[in-house]
Amino acid sequence: MSYTPNASEAKFLTVERFKYSRLETQAVIEKLKAANFADLALLDQIEKEDLFLKIRARSYRRCKVQFLVAIPIIFLGLVFKDEFSVFYLTTAITTYFLISSFFGLQSNKISKLEKKYSTNSTQNY
Q: How far apart are CA 125 and CA 16, in angstroms?
């Protein structure tokens, strides 16, 4: 016999789950799996989406740090390029990191609500 979720559990099966913490969502998913919920594929899809969201949030943070570090290094490289020839190489490599970080930031954008959700925040919104 399959289990049908009540209204408070059903909201965790939609995008409305971003208003709650990831830990709460995970607890409801585990409860539904234990209760033999009929649509296990949906629960697996939600878990995969949450995992990809966590990966995207981590990639976004890394790209942001790389971007913010690359800007002053490029500036220093351009200022001291006549003094030391190694700064040409440093500027070229840092420019590559700046460009790749920029596209990483663009492709891994997530909303503020998704960002809070991916960091296991326990606040309700």
A: 10
